[in-house]
Specification:
Rossmann fold; 0% strand; mainly alpha; single chain
């Protein structure tokens, strides 16, 4: 999540998916956006908050920081 904004229809579909899986199935998400920026990803801040509420309720958040793994080979070539 976070590469491109999500339009109204897709935001609602993602909410429905999240709601159907809530407390029934495991879900893994990756994003380069902080949670306080999610209202800028989804069409509607209310939908973004509803999605976050369901995702974070039983979540294990694993923050990862550091240099991009995808750029490691490129950075070696420029050194």
């Amino acid at each position: 999540l976070g590469y491109l904004p999500i339009d109204k229809e897709d935001s609602n579909l993602f909410f429905q998916l999240t709601d159907m899986r809530y407390e029934k199935k495991s879900t893994i998400l990756t994003t380069n956006m902080n949670f306080n920026e999610w209202d800028g990803i989804f069409y509607d801040a209310v939908v973004a908050n509803a999605i976050m509420d369901r995702i974070l309720h039983h979540a294990h958040v694993v923050p990862i920081s550091g240099k991009s793994y995808r750029l490691k080979d490129h950075l070696k070539q420029t050194d």
